[in-house]
């Protein structure tokens, strides 16, 4: 429905901008397909559903004016009212960008490398260059040519686009989600707030209706199709800063405690880089491998990270972290 209305508003704006004389309601009604369909809807009698058309037209006209389009109302010689939007009244002044502003727009346009936004971003860059903006030229066939500072946001997950639209339109969603320590996915009913990218992974923050609490979902663990649902949100949507902090906390970026682990010598360099302290040679295995004892920050998601290092990591404390890691390893072993 949102797409249909946007198309109808665009058609009306084009009609009003493209005419040299005022157009009457009757002429606009015969020129725009959505108005023809509204007028032909059942219940209007021999003359069609005039009330439905009039209501739709008046709403659309008001919406265009709220968006900034200057629409004039002109009364003709015969007393019939017409409408037009003069181009000189609706023309933006020339936009001038300095080198830093153009560079920032160029970087923003090149962020999206997949999904539907890639085409729009490419078109925006072409328009900047055509307008004489100082945007760096690139060979479109050279996939290896990147500047020293060029952001990339990978969007490989099929769930990204429907979730992005659901966040924008405030639409509840339903999807199947597989937790890292679960053998099978379970259904989730979520009111989506925002999508955030952390460490190359996309996360959805939102309100889990069944658990009546905020939750963060990693898009790569969403299975199957995301289904949109109707109805209003039942929980208040927090501001963007709060949502970002929620994703940061749930994705393991914010540590609230510390944990002690035993790490095989010569392994787990990402863990060593985060270590608050390291005690070398804490133990040896029967095979003679050396082990170091590390104190590392402990935040949400640490158990999933430790599992990735397999037999090279043993959790010493706290007990709940050790139990979570064991549960995840058993789930992996079960397939």
List the keywords:
single chain; 335 residues; alpha+beta; 11 helices; 36% helix
Task: Describe the protein in words.
This protein has 335 residues and is of the alpha+beta class. Helix content is 36%, strand content 24%. It contains eleven helices and twelve strands. It has helices spanning 2-17, 25-31, 33-39, 50-66, 99-109, 117-130, 160-169, 240-250, 269-274, 302-307, 319-334, and strands spanning 23-24, 72-75, 81-84, 173-177, 186-198, 201-208, 213-218, 222-228, 255-264, 277-284, 290-299, 313-317. A five-stranded antiparallel beta sheet has the order 7-6-5-4-8. The protein has a four-stranded antiparallel beta sheet with strand order 10-11-9-12. A hairpin with a 4-residue loop joins strand 6 and strand 7 (213-218). Helix 2 packs across helix 3, helix 3 (33-39) runs antiparallel to helix 4 (50-66) and helix 5 (99-109) packs antiparallel against helix 6 (117-130). The longest helix is centred in the first third of the chain and has 17 residues, at 50-66. The radius of gyration is 29 Å and the shape is elongated.
């Amino acid at each position: 429905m949102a797409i249909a209305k946007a198309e109808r508003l665009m058609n009306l704006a084009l009609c009003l901008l493209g005419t040299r004389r005022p157009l009457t309601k009757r002429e606009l009604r015969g020129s725009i397909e959505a108005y023809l369909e509204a007028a032909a809807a059942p219940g209007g009698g021999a003359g069609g559903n005039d009330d439905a058309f009039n209501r739709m037209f008046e709403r659309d006209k008001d919406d265009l004016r709220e968006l900034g389009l200057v629409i004039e109302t002109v009364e003709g010689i015969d007393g019939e009212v017409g409408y037009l939007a003069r181009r000189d009244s609706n023309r933006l002044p020339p936009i001038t960008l300095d080198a830093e502003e153009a560079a920032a727009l160029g970087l923003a346009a090149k962020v999206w490398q997949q999904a539907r936004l890639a085409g729009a971003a490419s078109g925006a860059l072409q328009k900047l260059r055509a307008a004489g903006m100082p945007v760096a030229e690139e060979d479109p066939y050279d996939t290896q040519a990147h500047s020293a500072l060029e952001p990339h946001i990978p969007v490989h997950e099929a769930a990204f686009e429907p979730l992005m639209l659901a966040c924008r339109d405030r639409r509840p969603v339903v999807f199947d989600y597989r937790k890292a320590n679960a053998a099978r996915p379970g259904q989730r009913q979520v009111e989506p707030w925002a999508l955030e990218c952390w460490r190359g992974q996309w996360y959805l923050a939102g309100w889990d209706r069944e658990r009546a609490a905020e939750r963060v979902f990693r898009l790569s663990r969403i299975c199957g199709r995301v289904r949109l649902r109707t109805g209003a949100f039942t929980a208040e949507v927090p501001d963007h800063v709060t949502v970002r902090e929620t994703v940061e906390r749930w994705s393991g970026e914010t540590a609230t405690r510390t944990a002690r682990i035993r790490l095989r010598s010569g392994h787990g360099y990402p863990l060593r880089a985060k270590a608050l302290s390291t005690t070398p040679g804490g133990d040896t295995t029967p095979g003679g491998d050396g082990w170091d004892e590390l104190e590392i920050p402990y935040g949400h998601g640490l158990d999933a990270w430790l599992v990735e290092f397999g037999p090279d990591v043993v959790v010493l404390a706290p007990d709940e972290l050790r139990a979570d890691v064991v549960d995840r390893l058993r789930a992996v072993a079960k397939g």
